[in-house]
Structure formats: structure tokens, C-alpha cells
Sequence to fold (423 residues):
Amino acid sequence: MSTNAFITRSELSSTGSGMLDGHSVAVKDNISTEGVLTTCASKMLADYVPPYSATVVDRILNAGGTIIGKTNMDEFGMGSTTETSAYGPTENPTAPGRVPGGSSGGSAAAVAAGEADLALGSDTGGSIRCPAAFCGVVGLKPTYGLVSRYGLVAYANSLEQIGPMATDVKGVAQLLDVIAGVDERDATTKPSPETSSYQSALDEPVDDITIGIPNELLEGVGEPVLDGFEAGIARLEAAGAQTKSISISSLEPAVQAYYVIAVSEASSNLARFDGVRYGHHEETGGDWHEVYSKNRSTGFGDEVKRRILLGTFALSAGYQDRYYQQAQHARAWLQQELETVFESVDLLASPTMPVEPFPLGEAIEDPMTMYRADRNTVPVNLANTPAISVPVTGSSGLPVGLQLIGPANSERALFSAGEVVYS
Fold:
């Protein structure tokens, strides 16, 4: 079945040998690949071919992996369904007629359909974990700074990370072993305290960990999703993990704070795309302002324009303190409360998404429904902590995900607990 997972099929052969020998890797189309189109699924960059590759791409090639193509996504990473792409939607290979999630939906679909062994996505507010849950694969949003963002076309710099996707936890750990590490070209990267490989964590026991289940992240969750989540928690408890219900009050305003911060950063980041030096350009007369406006109004899709306008408003004179600064205060509150929570529990658990995969066309017509569906994933990005989505099966038979969240640099614990859920 064709899922429209790929925007470009163009092989980049390995330049070395090592951990990824014989593995095919799909790359989200907002990650630069030298000599291969990188469009961000936007008409604005329809003809853009980068003169360099992202650090993560170089590391994959040096480890023996083969890049087999660029995957479809929501335009500039803005969406949760992979329907805002200028090149059409991607269909969920595990749930035909439904969305694969977003914004890294093409990467998840390519892995789920067996078109790639591994994939790279990027996660600004759940864009790896959402499609992983909807397509029944594993996806990790790493600790902020663990993986280089050099070569990533930025949506919201303070929130997003590149991360791995695979059919199982082992594949995700394997790819993270390759792409993690300090990069002198990305000042936000920092050394990991881990000295052992992430793959070695898969066999570690979980009988000494305590997992908190925030009540706030169970509210409004659909019954089929909740059934799958509870089955995953039962596996952890059977393996000896302790679980307990907790409350984290700062989770309530997290979605509102996230969307103010994300669209504000997007408004600033996307200002560079004017069609003058590169990108979509309309042949039109008039002064610079008219050309700039025409290029952007025809080059960007509706969802991108909506978020640019919202971000510009949030940063405008008279409103920045009212919206953007208040959102930053809410972010700081969440970060401080999570630091306290992680003194009494090792990990947190929740359904990755509160709903099952949307039917194609349903959420794209109702942006607020799409935004609200991110409420379980966006706190992780605001806190700059890692989280993994592991597939579980909802009682309706559709794929759903169980999300495990940890403090900074707790990827090993996420892998050991995630392996229990997956097995």
C-alpha cells in the first residue's frame, strides 16, 4: 500500500562502517541532506537543495547507515496529522483511512510500513511521539542538547530536538547511540553523563523504579486509549516497578504556554523565508514590502500563516508581557515542579495521545481539536526532558502509545522501562 510517506527518494550511501551497517534510514524533510531536496513539506522551499548535511546525517553515514529518502511532514513541523504538507497527506499504514500523526508522520509511516529500518524525526511539542503512537512504532524525544540540531530547519529553537524512530525499543536505542553527542557546530549540545551504550540499558531490571502517573494526563482520555495504557502499566508492575497516582498542577496551563512560546519563536525563525535569496518567488512588481508579502502569502500554507500571525501578535508591542512573558512564567513553574516531582519518582507515565488516530480530514478542519490533542506531549518540550512513546493496542484495535517521561539524561531508564512495555 502506498502511504505517501516519502517526499523524495534519493539514496545517500554510507561513508563508513559500524553500528548501522545494512540499515536503511528515512530522514524527515526538515533535516538538511547535502545535494538532496529539503523542502520542509512547503511550497516555500520546493526547490531548495542544501549544500551541506546535518550533523545527524553525517553520523548515520559514518556509522554505515544508508539514507533512502526524505519523509513527508506537516509543513515546517506545524501540525499533528501530516495533512498540512504542501505535497498531500500521508496515510497511516497500520490504520488505513486515518492520519499517521505529525509532524513526523512520514517517518513513522515509513518505519511502520517496512519501507525503512529506522527514521529520524524532530519533536517540538510531540512531533515524534504522536506519530509513533498513531502508527504503532517507538519514538524518542531526547533530552534537550543530547542530539545536535545543526542542519535542522528550526521551528521553535528552545523546544525542539531531533530524535530516533524504529519498530522497537532496540532500534531507537541503536540510532541514539549513533546520533547523540556534543557538536561544536551546535552550542546547545552538552556532554552526556552516560558512559555505556544506550542499547545496554534494554536488559536492566525495573524492580527498583517508581513511576508516577499524573492525574492531569488521564483526564479526557478515550476509553480505548486508557485500556491500552493500563495494559502497559500492568506489564511494568508485573516486572516489579512501583506505580502511584500523583498530581502536577502546572500541567494544566502547559498547552496554552506551549503554543504562545512555539508560535512566537516560529514567527521569528520563519522571517528569513522571503523568496528573495532562495525559496518560492512570485514574479510581481511593486516595492520590497509587496514582493515580500506576495512571496510569503503564496509560499506558506494556511496553518503556517496562522501560527506566524499568532506569534507576531504575541510578540507585538503592548502584548509581549501579557502573553509571551506569562507563558515563560508558566514554563518556569512547570520546570520547577517537575524537578520536585522527580525527587520522589523516577519516571512519569501517561497515554502518549489522549485519542486514537484521527480519520483523514477530520482534525485539519478544526485546529483547536488538533492543538488540544497535544496536551500530554507538550510539557516534555517545555521542560526540556526526554520522553519515549511505546506502542500498546487500544481496546478498539487501533494503535495507541504509552508515554514514559524522565528527568534530564534519563534515556537509559526510559529504554529499560520501555522495553518492558514493548515486550
Summary: The mean pLDDT is 94. The chain has two domains: 6-240+348-422, 250-334. The radius of gyration is 20 Å.
